[in-house]
Write a structure and sequence with these properties.
Length: 168
């Protein structure tokens, strides 16, 4: 599923990235939506957790989520700098694919931890953090324009990607 070298055109590359993006965003979104809606209708069982443990759970989940999100964005920026020095278009795209998938997976972990924290405590802070993670996810949503801009493709490379030409 995450095989990144079997694309022929820029549109094929985009569709593969978009599929991975949608899949990885749906994994935490569905349980979160069910949990949130169940909580609004008071259908979620309340766990009998002592107050001091709730504080620990909130602290650990929020801290872990922030750290994972920070390193996801930082790793993306650092790997993008290394990708820009590559000469071959296919190699740039393969490296960019790996970088984006790594970022998406780290954001998936952060979102999943937030959903777990919300399940355990039902505190609104987890809802706010989850929405913030969705915003971060949406900033990295793949599109042909975003790929061209992020890889700083100009001239022939940009035309190859946009015009459905075969990538050598």
């Amino acid at each position: 599923m995450f095989e990144n070298t079997k694309f022929r055109t820029g549109v094929d590359y985009y569709h593969r990235l978009n599929f991975i993006f949608n899949l990885l965003i749906a994994i935490p979104l569905l349980p979160f939506a069910l949990l949130y809606l169940g909580n609004m209708k008071s259908r979620v069982p309340v766990l009998d957790i002592p107050v001091q443990w709730i504080f620990v759970i909130d602290t650990v989940t929020v801290t872990t989520t922030v750290i994972l999100s920070y390193y996801a964005i930082r790793g993306y920026r650092e790997s993008r700098i290394l990708i820009l020095v590559l000469d071959d278009l296919r190699q740039k795209m393969i490296s960019f694919h790996e970088s984006l998938v790594r970022t998406y997976l780290m954001l998936l972990c952060a979102a999943s931890i937030t959903v777990l924290g919300y399940f355990l405590t039902l505190h609104t802070i987890h809802v706010v953090i989850f929405i913030a993670l969705l915003v971060i996810f949406s900033l990295k949503r793949p599109s042909l324009k975003m790929i061209v801009e992020e890889l700083k493709l100009v001239g022939e490379e940009s035309d190859i990607l946009r015009n459905r030409s075969i990538i050598v």
